[in-house]
C-alpha cells in the first residue's frame, strides 16, 4: 500500500496538526498546495492530505449522511493486470488519469469507497 489520503479543506494545516500529534515530518510543495505528505521517520509510513475543490463537508461520524472521508492508494507494477484483478474481486472502474507511463486509475470497492491503483510512481 502506498498511502492513506485524507480529504480536507486545508491540506497544510491538517498535515501540521497530525505532524504535531505523531512527531512526523511535513513535506509540502509550494507549487501545489492541494497535496501535502506527512512522513514517518525514514518514510516507512506516510499519510497524504488532499484539498477538496468546492465546498467541503466534513464527516460527522457515525452519521451516515456525512461519512468518513479517505481513500487508499496502491502501487502496482502492472496496472492492466491489477485492474482485471480488482474488477474480478468486485471493484467498479471510475476514472483513468490518462498517464502513459505514470498515473492512477480510480475504482470503488464493493461498498462504494474509492481507491486508486497507482503506476509508474514508485520511487
Summed up, what is this model?
The chain is an alpha+beta fold. It has helices at residues 11-22, 79-88; strands at residues 3-8, 25-28, 35-39, 46-51, 70-75, 92-96, 103-108, 114-119. It has an eight-stranded mixed sheet with strand order 2-3-4-1-5-8-7-6, covered by helices on one side.
Please name the CATH architecture of the largest domain.
Answer: Roll
State the strand order across the main sheet.
2-3-4-1-5-8-7-6
Strand content: 35-45%
Number of helices: 2
Secondary-structure element series:
EHEEEEHEEE
Give the CA-based shape: globular
The helicity comes to 10-25%
Query: How much is the radius of gyration in Å?
Result: 15 Å
CATH secondary-structure class of the largest domain: Alpha Beta
Specify the biggest β-sheet.
8 strands, mixed
Features:
123 residues, eight-stranded mixed sheet, 2,3-Dihydroxybiphenyl 1,2-Dioxygenase, domain 1, 2 domains, 36% strand, alpha+beta, 2 helices
Notes on the structure:
The chain has 123 residues and is of the alpha+beta class. The protein has two domains: 1-53, 2,3-Dihydroxybiphenyl 1,2-Dioxygenase, domain 1 (Roll); 68-123, 2,3-Dihydroxybiphenyl 1,2-Dioxygenase, domain 1 (Roll). The protein has two helices and eight strands, in the order E-H-E-E-E-E-H-E-E-E. Strands 2-3-4-1-5-8-7-6 form an eight-stranded mixed beta sheet, with helices on one face. A hairpin with a 6-residue loop joins strand 2 and strand 3 (35-39). The longest helix has 12 residues, at 11-22. The chain is globular and about 40 Å long.
Amino acid at each position: 500500500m502506498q498511502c492513506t489520503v485524507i480529504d480536507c479543506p486545508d491540506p497544510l494545516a491538517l498535515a501540521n496538526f497530525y505532524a504535531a500529534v505523531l512527531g512526523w515530518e511535513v513535506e509540502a510543495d509550494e507549487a501545489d498546495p492541494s497535496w501535502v505528505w506527512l512522513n514517518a521517520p525514514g518514510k516507512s509510513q506516510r499519510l497524504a492530505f488532499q484539498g477538496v475543490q468546492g465546498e467541503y463537508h466534513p464527516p460527522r461520524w457515525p452519521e451516515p449522511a456525512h461519512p468518513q472521508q479517505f481513500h487508499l492508494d496502491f502501487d502496482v507494477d502492472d496496472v492492466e493486470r491489477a485492474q482485471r484483478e480488482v474488477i474480478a474481486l468486485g471493484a467498479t472502474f471510475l476514472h483513468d488519469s490518462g498517464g502513459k507511463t505514470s498515473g492512477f486509475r480510480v475504482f470503488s470497492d464493493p461498498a462504494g469507497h474509492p481507491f486508486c491503483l497507482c503506476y509508474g510512481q514508485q520511487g
